[in-house]
Amino acid sequence: MKLSLLACMLIAAGLNTAVVTAQQAEHAQAAVEQKHQHDHDHDHQDEHDHDDDDMPALGAHVHGHAVLTLVLEGNEMQLAFQSAAQSIVGFEHKPRTPEQKQEVAAAIEVFNQAQWFSFNTDANCELVMAEASTDLTEPQANKGHADFYANYQLLCQRPARLDELQLSIFSLVPALEHMDIQWIINGRQGASQAALSSSTVRF
Ligand SMILES: [Zn+2]
């Protein structure tokens, strides 16, 4: 009993020391920045709210970033694109103004037209399906982060010649800074990063 009570007190003392140290550091910082007193519980709550606003809701959701996966089996290619809406239209709430609605529609059009990527011509890949969507037009929009999605199917007449992907998306969508590309091409696989300054991916 005595030992465990002592242990509890030591742990409590240790925790108190840690808490006091953290609070003192916080106070020192607050004093420098704000020059007025803060209620600790209030501070704590503020920090949590702030963190929730800043943290991505999804694993792949990073502002300025997009993910593209490419799978080629035989001569059938599947492309799947996903990006934070922030990287595409610059906001992640439901479009309210006519301008915002137009921006979302224009972005969907860019993805449906599928002109933002191309392959080396001798692979002879032809688009057979394009389908773009966004969380921004879903009923649950405004509940945090939102994404754009685009899925494509292509047929490649000479899949063995496929060795290059050109990305023009960075000039079409300036808010998009970089993209992770993961690919599986008839058993071979790899990963690359692309940006405006390095927009060619070699397989
Ligand atoms: Zn976001």
UniProtKB/TrEMBL annotation:
Biased composition (Basic and acidic residues): 33-48
UniProt KW keywords: Signal
Keyword Signal listed: yes
Signal peptide: 1-18
Segments for region (Disordered): 26-58
InterPro entries with a match to the protein in the record: ZrgA-like (IPR021253)
Name of the protein in question: DUF2796 domain-containing protein
